[in-house]
């Protein structure tokens, strides 16, 4: 029974298909090394067999050709000396190797003129016609004919070697028998058959065949052993990859495949797999961190929102109670005070919700447009003006950032006092202003009003890309990495140009163990002090998200002499493409500092308005 397809084509019998699928399934369970070794053995076997057949056939043709030439060249000589050879012959004369038979057409008889005799009297002669016919063969063209063995005259039982030699075929050539009469006239007398035994030739071919078979077996066995060792050695990297993959499958994502020489298939595979594993591990860690941050964020956000909501609810209840207590002046004042508290709590909750929405948009890649040409120096100068208006007695120093490579092992940033330079970036101006305002707002809130502040800006070249910069953790080691990349840039002049802004205060600072966490959402080193200052714990998180969206880097380190230094590094181009030279327009920009303020009373007059401006832009911060 067969299965018929619906397409009208020829159907395959089910048993045949089952057998074929069974063979495929059987081969699928054979290891790759076994398949390779078996393939090599099969190829060696086929190759040695073909070579052996070609050698034996070539030698056989050569020997047959030489026998034919010998018959044709010596036929006349042998025929003319048959009488001489017979007179000197004995029954086993090894000198006699030719067989000569003459057919006389006049008498119609055939005569054996010369007959080789083997050991123990064994006679072997070619199977030839006795009537002078050619049996379809041509004159003067050698052909092969079987042997007729005669043991009737043997004195004892011949051995196997003699009988084997006697049974080999003969190579025979038929020639015309021409005789001359007394007048010298030639006459066609009959046919002469001259033959040579192919015993020696066949015996040599047999020995050669046996030798080729033995060599072929040795080659196949040796090739099998060598191929097994080579295949095993060659597949060792794959076995290591298999073991590494098994460990990775068990959950150890830190495993890596041992490297192999570049330019080899295993080397390319190892490199590609290691890159893939690194990316997978990084993605997994990031996903894990994102999940943990999201859980912590939801928990903190719920807590932060619950506080103003509870205050609103409590003061609303209190307002009802106070309004119901009567129409006295004191009751109305208490009610108004409750309304003020409700308004303050709702305002705080509004700010918090706005910050949460802003972070959500930044996380999704929305809410930012990096298309404007922004003067970074002017942005910092505006924030310095705000800070001076809020803290007129604070000393604000500005300058240009440089690099100090006197100690190549520990390079550092330097600051040359002066006006802030003009550094133009392709960025989102409003978001960049928000970052700087948040930082300056933190300085205003959490540092003494009489502590000095340094604001500096400059451009450096670094042998690194923006993607590498964005991946750096926000700590001092990353700053050291950037400085060494800048040192390398001075030697190779290859890399990208970056704008560097530093905000240095000399306040109480942040403990080292908390410094790397100030960019976490809702993290506050001193929650009570942050609450008192009106911070939400989201300002630095927003600043980091904005900087990262610009393919930049921000970190917090300790200032020399105490305090906190915030460093922002942004690429001059929107995507941080590398190029051959770092450059920027360093034209000085106007900046507010104590020496540049024309009339402090103007700032005092507008102090409340400026403070509200700073609070609006920088109040959503954390220490």
Features:
623 residues; alpha+beta; Helix Hairpins; Heat Shock Protein 90; six-stranded mixed beta sheet; 17 helices; 15 strands; disordered N terminus
Describe the structure.
This protein has helices spanning 14-28, 32-80, 82-87, 160-166, 199-234, 236-249, 265-324, 329-363, 376-390, 429-446, 466-470, 476-492, 512-515, 527-533, 539-549, 600-605, 607-618, and strands at residues 98-104, 109-114, 123-126, 143-145, 147-150, 170-180, 186-197, 372-375, 396-404, 412-417, 424-427, 453-462, 496-505, 553-558, 564-571. The longest helix is centred in the middle third of the chain and has 60 residues, at 265-324. It contains 17 helices and 15 strands. The protein has three domains: 90-198, no CATH class; 258-367, Helix Hairpins, CATH 1.10.287.130; 374-616, Histidine kinase-like ATPase, C-terminal domain (Heat Shock Protein 90, 2-Layer Sandwich). The two termini are 85 Å apart. The radius of gyration is 53 Å and the shape is rod-shaped. Helix content is 51%, strand content 17%. The model is unreliable at 1-9 and 576-623 (pLDDT under 50). Helix 7 runs antiparallel to helix 8 and helix 8 runs parallel beside helix 15 (539-549). A hairpin with a 5-residue loop joins strand 14 and strand 15 (564-571). A six-stranded mixed beta sheet has the order 10-9-12-13-15-14, sandwiched between helices. The chain has a five-stranded antiparallel beta sheet with strand order 2-1-7-6-4. The chain has 623 residues and is of the alpha+beta class.
């Amino acid at each position: 029974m067969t299965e018929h397809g619906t397409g009208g084509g020829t159907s395959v019998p089910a048993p045949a298909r089952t057998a074929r699928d069974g063979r495929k399934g059987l081969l699928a369970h054979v290891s790759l090394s076994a398949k390779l070794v078996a393939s090599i053995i099969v190829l060696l076997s086929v190759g040695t067999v073909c070579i052996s057949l070609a050698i034996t056939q070539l030698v056989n043709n050569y020997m047959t050709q030489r026998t034919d030439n010998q018959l044709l060249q010596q036929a006349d000589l042998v025929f003319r000396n048959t009488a001489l050879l017979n007179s000197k012959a004995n029954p086993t004369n090894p000198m006699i190797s030719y067989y000569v038979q003459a057919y006389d057409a006049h008498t119609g008889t055939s005569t054996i003129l010369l007959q080789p005799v083997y050991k123990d009297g064994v006679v072997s002669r070619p199977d030839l016609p006795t009537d002078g016919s050619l049996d379809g063969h041509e004159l003067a063209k050698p052909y092969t004919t079987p042997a007729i063995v005669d043991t009737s005259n043997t004195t004892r039982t011949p051995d196997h070697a003699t009988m084997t030699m006697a049974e080999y075929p003969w190579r025979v050539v038929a020639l015309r028998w021409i005789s001359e009469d007394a007048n010298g006239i030639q006459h066609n007398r009959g046919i002469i058959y001259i033959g040579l035994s192919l015993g020696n030739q066949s015996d040599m071919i047999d020995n050669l065949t046996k030798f080729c078979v033995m060599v072929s077996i040795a080659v196949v066995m040796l090739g099998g052993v060598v191929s097994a060792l080579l295949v095993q050695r060659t597949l060792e990297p794959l076995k290591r990859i298999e073991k590494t993959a098994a460990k990775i499958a068990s959950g150890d994502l830190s495993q890596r495949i041992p490297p192999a020489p570049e330019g080899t298939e295993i080397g390319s595979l190892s490199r590609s797999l290691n890159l893939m594993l690194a990316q997978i591990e990084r993605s997994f860690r990031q996903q894990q961190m994102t999940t943990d941050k999201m859980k912590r964020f939801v928990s903190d956000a719920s807590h932060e929102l619950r506080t103003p909501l509870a205050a609103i609810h409590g003061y609303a209840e209190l307002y009802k109670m106070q309004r119901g207590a009567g129409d006295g002046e004191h009751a109305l004042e208490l009610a108004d005070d409750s309304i003020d508290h409700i308004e303050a709590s709702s305002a705080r909750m509004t700010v918090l919700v706005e910050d949460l929405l802003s972070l959500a948009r930044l996380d999704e890649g929305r809410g930012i447009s990096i298309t404007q040409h922004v003067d970074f120096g002017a942005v910092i100068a505006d924030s310095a003006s705000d800070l001076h208006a809020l803290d007129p007695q604070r000393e604000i120093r500005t300058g240009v950032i440089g690099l100090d490579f006197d100690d190549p092992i520990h390079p550092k940033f330097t600051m040359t006092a002066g006006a802030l330079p003009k550094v133009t970036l392709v960025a989102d101006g409003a978001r960049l202003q928000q970052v700087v305002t948040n930082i300056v707002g933190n300085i205003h809130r959490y540092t003494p009003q009489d502590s000095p502040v340094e604001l500096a800006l400059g451009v450096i070249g670094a042998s690194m890309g923006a993607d590498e910069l964005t991946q750096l953790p926000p700590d001092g080691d990353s700053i050291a990495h950037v400085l060494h990349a800048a040192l390398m840039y001075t030697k190779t002049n290859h890399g990208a140009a970056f704008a560097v802004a530093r905000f240095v205060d000399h306040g109480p600072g942040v403990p080292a163990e908390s410094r790397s966490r100030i960019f976490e959402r809702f993290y506050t080193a001193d929650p009570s002090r942050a609450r008192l200052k009106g911070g939400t714990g989201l300002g630095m998180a927003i600043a980091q998200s904005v900087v990262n969206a610009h393919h930049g880097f921000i970190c917090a380190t300790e200032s020399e002499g105490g305090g906190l230094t915030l460093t922002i590094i942004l690429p001059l181009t929107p995507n941080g493409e590398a190029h051959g030279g770092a450059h920027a327009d360093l034209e000085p920009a106007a900046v507010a500092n104590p020496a540049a303020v024309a009339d402090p009373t103007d700032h005092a007059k507008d102090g409340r308005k400026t403070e509200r401006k700073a609070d609006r832009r920088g109040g959503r911060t954390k220490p």
